[in-house]
Design a protein that fits this description.
Elements: H1 3-13, H2 23-34, H3 38-50, H4 53-80, H5 87-94, H6 97-132, H7 139-159, H8 161-191, H9 212-223, H10 239-268, H11 271-276, H12 280-288, H13 295-324, E1 334-336, H14 343-359, H15 362-390, H16 402-422, H17 424-435, H18 437-445, H19 452-469, E2 471-473
Antiparallel strand pairs: 1-2
Helix pairs in contact: 2-8, 2-10, 2-13, 3-4, 3-9, 4-9, 4-10, 4-16, 5-6, 5-15, 6-7, 6-13, 6-14, 6-15, 7-8, 7-13, 7-14, 8-10, 8-13, 15-16, 15-17, 16-17
Transmembrane segments: 21-41, 53-75, 109-128, 140-161, 173-191, 211-231, 243-268, 288-308, 341-359, 365-386, 398-421, 427-448
Protein name: Si:ch73-352p4.8
Subcellular location: Membrane
């Protein structure tokens, strides 16, 4: 065996997360995570709160622009700080360890399980309901199918980074096909002069200013997920080029598709019909093409599965990096010796999501999730501006214009402040649950001060768990 072969073999055997995500998988990762159940559910919420067809289309476009602004800020953060971990890493580098730990705490106790449960249930509902129409589907069966979909996604993400990436690319093309299937009949009908639903599109009689922000909330929920590529920075090939490119291409694509999908909805359905529908895409399919109506729920289900896969691919990397920084038990900073996946971090999420899915308290937790998510995104972009001011010479391969960064940060804090005003009960509880992480932070960071016996039991459990899962620490630095 030659010297080069030995070196190549040694590198292959070294345990670390590999750079396997190119430009196409990176763009598909963002599109596949953003386009979930939101575009098939949120149009109703946007229309109710905006009050008119024209204004609702404007809200969809502005939500896309705002999400693009946020994604561009995260492109700068992702190229300035080359570690994986997304929000957690940026808060740690700019504002310090406590805000970073609290972001980690709420992500794994509330945000990720709540969002994953919601998307899993949407998957289960769209798979099961067509078989029972027009009757209501059994709730137990919906939850069972939801858990099966969730289990498949967890298994793929435990098995291989490459397979998780390929699954995401496949499901992204499926969901883009679903969007095109909605857009084309709508545009054809519009070209034939079917424009009656757009006449007087900007009637402002039913608009109330206090409800308009809720329309943006619904729209922004459908665009959620543009920050997930930053969770896996260390696995992106040539991140300085591919992260900004993937973010810009994917968010422009999603915004154009979302606006066109809504135009298609309003071409084929009156605003009143859209408001009466619980599943807008299915109602549209029944109106546009009777023969293919049964295909749409199946495509929406696969779309939900893609969003779920993106979440499970990205979020565990935040926990992995947090454990590597000493803010979480070390077992979660380990990866499988052969599969090279962050197995313990992926597996921790699974029981949390299953419990939340079975209890069914999803919609209440989504309110918690929205407040905490937007508050910490606002903190991350504020931290970016502070870091830019304090360290002007820090290398920034991609630099977002100051006006975009300031606009996005101000709008985020405005959204958070408004939710405190419009829903003080749920927002207050969300604040309280976030603050429960403060004592946990001090116990975790100063665990060497815990009684010796406790530490010995903890180390014993960690060692046996490490042997059982066949995981170990990374052997090379990947950032």
């Amino acid at each position: 065996m030659s010297k080069d072969d030995k070196k190549e073999k040694a590198e292959e055997e070294v345990v670390h997360l590999r750079r396997e995500i190119g430009l196409l998988p990176a763009a598909c990762f963002i599109i596949g995570t953003v386009v979930g159940s939101g575009i098939f559910i949120a149009p109703k919420g946007v229309l109710i709160n905006s009050g008119s067809v024209g204004l609702s289309l404007l809200v969809w476009a502005l939500c896309g622009v705002l999400s693009l602004f946020g994604a561009l800020c995260y492109a700068e953060l992702g190229t300035s700080f080359t570690k994986s971990g997304g929000h957690y890493t940026y808060l740690l580098e700019t504002l310090g360890p406590l805000p970073a730990f609290l972001r980690l705490w709420v992500e794994f106790l509330f945000i990720r399980p709540a969002v994953a449960s919601y998307v899993s249930l949407a998957f289960g509902r769209y798979v099961v309901e067509p078989f029972f129409a027009p009757c209501a589907a059994p709730t137990v069966l919906i939850k069972l199918v939801s858990i099966l979909g969730l289990t498949f996604v967890v298994a793929v993400n435990c098995w291989s980074v490459t397979w998780a990436s390929r699954t995401q690319i496949t499901l992204t093309f499926v969901k883009m096909f679903a969007l095109v299937l909605i857009i084309v009949p709508g545009v054809i009908a519009l070209a034939k002069g079917q424009t009656e639903n757009f006449q007087n599109g900007f009637e402002v009689d039913s608009l109330t200013l206090d409800r308009l922000p809720l329309a943006f909330y619904n729209g922004l929920y459908a665009y959620g997920g543009w920050f997930y590529l930053n969770f896996v920075t260390e696995e992106v090939i040539n991140p300085n080029r591919n992260i900004p490119l993937a973010i810009i291409c994917s968010m422009v694509t999603v915004t154009v598709c979302y606006v066109l999908v809504n135009v298609a909805y309003y071409t084929m359905m009156t605003p009143a019909e859209l408001l009466l529908s619980d599943a807008v895409a299915v109602t549209f399919a029944n109106r546009a093409f009777e023969g293919l109506a049964s295909v749409i729920p199946f495509l929406v289900a696969l779309s939900c599965l893609g969003a779920l896969n993106g979440g499970f691919f990205g979020s565990p990397r935040m926990l992995f990096v947090g454990a590597r920084e000493g803010h979480w038990p070390p077992i979660f900073s380990m990866i499988h010796i052969r599969r090279h996946t962050p197995l313990p971090a992926v597996l921790l999420l699974y029981p949390l999501v299953v419990v939340m899915l079975i209890t069914g308290e999803i919609y209440q937790l989504i309110n918690f999730a929205s407040f905490a998510r937007w508050f910490f995104i606002a903190l991350a972009t504020l931290g970016m501006l502070i870091h830019r001011y304090r360290f002007p010479l820090h290398p920034r391969p991609f630099k977002v214009p100051l006006v975009i960064a300031v606009t996005f940060t101000v709008v985020c804090f405005f959204i958070v402040g408004l939710s405190l005003y419009s829903d003080p009960w749920n927002t207050g509880r969300s604040c309280a649950l976030t603050l429960t992480g403060v004592p946990v932070y001090y116990v975790t960071v100063y665990r060497f001060r815990l009684p010796h016996r406790w530490r010995r039991i903890f180390n014993y459990c960690s060692m046996h768990l490490q042997i059982l899962l066949e995981v170990t620490q990374q052997e090379v630095q990947t950032y």
